[in-house]
């Protein structure tokens, strides 16, 4: 394998991708699948806030670790909570 200095950025990205695919991945479990929440409550602003960043944006699935079903439901619940004034649309 060539040293990183001689690798092009494209090759370096490919190498990093290969290493990542081989490295053991931490087991990710959906918060709502594992918890006792029966559904995602749009009135429970405190729980919804956990899945928003400091700019009050909805965090992506790669950050939240939720399953597709719950990520979609979460996005809807956050949008509903924003309409009700329980959560902010943005920071300012
Ligand atoms: Zn889930």
Summary keywords:
92 residues, mainly alpha, 30s Ribosomal Protein S18, 47% helix, elongated
How do the strands and helices of this protein lay out in sequence?
Blueprint: H1 9-22, H2 31-34, H3 45-49, H4 61-64, H5 68-83
Give an account of the 3D structure:
By secondary structure, the protein is mainly alpha-helical. It has one domain (27-92): Irregular (30s Ribosomal Protein S18). It has helices spanning 9-22, 31-34, 45-49, 61-64, 68-83. It starts with 8 loop residues before the first helix and ends in a 9-residue tail after the last helix. The model has no long low-confidence stretch (mean pLDDT 89). It binds zinc ion (ZN). Zinc ion is lined by residues 30, 32-33, 66-67, 69-70.
> How many E strands?
0
Q: What is the string of helix and strand elements?
A: HHHHH
CATH topology: 30s Ribosomal Protein S18
**Which architecture does the CATH hierarchy give at level 2?**
Irregular
Number of helices: 5
What is bound: which ligands? zinc ion
- Relevant CATH superfamily: Ribosomal protein S18
Report how far the terminal alpha carbons are from each other.
50 Å
Report the radius of gyration as a whole number of Å.
Answer: 19 Å
Average pLDDT over all residues: 89
Helix content: 40-55%
Give the gist of this structure.
Helices cover 47% and strands 0% of the residues. With 92 residues, the chain is mainly alpha-helical.
